[in-house]
Amino acid sequence: QKEVEQDPGPLSVPEGAIVSLNCTYSNSAFQYFMWYRQYSRKGPELLMYTYSSGNKEDGRFTAQVDKSSKYISLFIRDSQPSDSATYLCAMIPFLYGGSQGNLIFGKGTKLSVKP
Amino acid sequence: GAVVSQHPSRVICKSGTSVKIECRSLDFQATTMFWYRQFPKQSLMLMATSNEGSKATYEQGVEKDKFLINHASLTLSTLTVTSAHPEDSSFYICSAWGSSYNSPLHFGNGTRLTVT
């Protein structure tokens, strides 16, 4: 079993729909969870960043972490064509301020929002 | 705004030549930077961890003599692809942790390398 599983899609939704993106993981030591958005031929852009379980909201985006189920989600409300991108989940047990460690990434879900 | 700057964004070179890619942390010091490679429709693959003032740590299967990493200052890491071949054509991305202890990882905008 891979450490992080993410459905690669593609996922196609109409404009205005609520999008749900998910990742599951196997390592119970993960505590920091991030969602990145990557447009074609660009580097990943940090969208949301959460620590431990719970919800975090930022505008149209909501990140959820359920550590008991080892399951994280990113919800996008009122989706727009400009949200069309690949969304990568990432997680790590600890943040060391750069002294060590690196993120474990999901493979990314390609999202397409149709006008 | 961007906290990690990467240059160039795109480069085309002939087979056998070397290419240098720069990664800079903006407004903060990064003792550690990471270099990734991404092939089309694939996820990010960590190549190496760049440590300021010391040798880089390479992931298994990555040739350290081919992918030279230099982290000479706290704001700059460089990746040099030596004697490039067409199979080295890929999207190379660097990243760095933010300035505070629990800051997440930020990425540069990537460099599209095409070897002809």
Give the biggest beta sheet of chain A: 6 strands, mixed
Radius of gyration of chain B: 13 Å
Give the oligomer, counting copies of the same chain as homo and different chains as hetero. heterodimer
Number of β-strand runs of chain A: 11
Q: Helix- and strand-based class of chain A?
A: mainly beta
Q: Proportion of β residues of chain A?
A: over 45%
Order of helices and strands of chain A: EEEEEEEEEEE
Describe this structure in words.
The complex is a heterodimer of chains A (115) and B (116). The mean pLDDT of chain A is 89. Chain A contains no helices and eleven strands. Chain A has 115 residues and is mainly beta. The N and C termini of chain A lie far apart (37 Å). Chain B has 116 residues and is an all-beta fold. In chain B, a hairpin with a 7-residue loop joins strand 9 and strand 10 (105-107). In chain B, strands 2, 4, 5, 6, 9, 10 and 11 form a seven-stranded mixed sheet that branches. A four-stranded antiparallel sheet of chain B has the order 1-3-8-7, with no helix packed on it. Chain B starts with a strand and ends with a strand. Chain B is globular, with a radius of gyration of 13 Å. Chain B contains no helices and eleven strands. At the A-B interface, strand 4 and strand 5 of A face strand 9 and strand 10 of B.
Please outline the helices and strands:
The complex is a heterodimer of chains A (115) and B (116).
Chain A: E1 4-6, E2 11-14, E3 19-25, E4 32-38, E5 45-51, E6 54-58, E7 61-66, E8 71-76, E9 85-92, E10 104-105, E11 109-114
Parallel strand pairs in A: 2-11
Antiparallel strand pairs in A: 1-3, 3-8, 4-5, 4-9, 6-7, 7-8, 9-10, 9-11
Chain B: E1 4-7, E2 10-13, E3 19-25, E4 32-38, E5 45-51, E6 57-58, E7 67-73, E8 76-81, E9 90-97, E10 105-107, E11 111-115
Parallel strand pairs in B: 2-11
Antiparallel strand pairs in B: 1-3, 3-8, 4-5, 4-9, 5-6, 7-8, 9-10, 9-11
